[in-house]
Design brief:
10 helices, eight-stranded parallel beta sheet, 10 strands, alpha/beta, TIM Barrel, two-stranded antiparallel ribbon
Length: about 270
């Protein structure tokens, strides 16, 4: 497993298990299965309502070997809301700290300085090791960085071969903010892309592996969701081989702005492609 070194000084595995839409026994058993196969990075969020299920899945494992991320929902990012949410997360996950806490979505009705100040206090208190954001574009990310006295370590966004966010990636790289890709397979669309299939055949890999390897070679962490052992094994097997520079550029060129996740909470669009 390769790791990204965050500005906080901690290391984050480049590939983790996404748990959106996983709950109950299925979530617990999937986490157990993933850990048995070598996964250590588990991504969740308050919105997923599966903290307790994940706690059951990681029970008995050495906490120091795990990297657990959770996210505060956009309605709870006031100073008091973030503080209460984080403490509840820790109880639900049966852990003393989070490796990474993210603001799940921006909320223009709550000052970002208030939100980041609360995140900063949690890190200084030792309840959180690293802090970051999710679904922040360059402008909002810049505001978050300016408002925080500690490093903003991660921006978790939709990123896959059909949504190559080159400008955001460059912006984050210049500021040493790690990009993490959710929906890294584009809800299956990336793996069905003819070019990705062709490259996969030439490498003796699956299209999904090619999509994930493309992200890793761009320095982007990925958190694909999988439940079955075969797909879990397939997803984590992306570190012992490479895509050629020529094929990387061909995949880059697919980035036609196919955004899958683009809600407009309260009539406020988050992205304008």
């Amino acid at each position: 497993m390769e790791h990204a070194k965050l500005l906080s000084g901690y290391r984050m595995p480049m590939l983790g298990l996404g748990t959106w839409m996983l709950s109950g026994k299925e979530c617990t058993e999937t986490v157990k299965r993933a850990l048995s196969l070598g996964y250590t990075h588990i991504d969740t969020a308050d919105y997923y309502r599966n903290h307790a299920d994940i706690a059951a899945g990681i029970a008995g494992h050495d906490r120091s070997e795990l990297f657990i991320t959770s996210k505060v929902w956009m309605t709870d990012i006031s100073a008091d809301g973030i503080d209460k949410a984080c403490r509840r997360f820790l109880s639900e996950l049966s852990t003393d700290y989070l490796d990474l806490l993210l603001i799940h979505w921006p909320n223009d009705d709550i000052p970002i300085a208030e939100s980041m100040g609360a995140m900063e206090r949690l890190e200084r208190e030792g309840l959180v090791r690293s802090i970051g954001v999710s679904n922040f574009d360059e402008g909002r990310l810049s505001e978050a960085i300016s408002a925080c006295g500690l490093p903003v370590c991660v921006d978790q966004v939709e990123f896959h071969p059909r949504l190559y966010q080159k400008d955001l990636l460059g912006f984050c790289s210049e500021r040493h903010v790690q990009v993490t890709a959710y929906s890294p397979l584009g809800r299956g669309e990336a793996a069905s892309e003819p070019l990705v299939k062709d490259i996969a055949r030439s490498l003796g890999k699956t299209p999904g592996q090619v999509a994930l390897r493309w992200l890793v070679q761009h320095g982007v962490c990925a958190i694909p969701k999988a439940t079955g052992e075969e797909h879990l094994r397939e997803n984590i097997d992306v570190f012992s081989w490479k895509i050629s520079d020529e094929d990387m550029k061909r995949i880059d060129a697919l980035g036609a702005g196919r955004r899958i996740i683009d809600p407009a909470f309260g009539g406020k669009p988050f992205f304008d492609d």
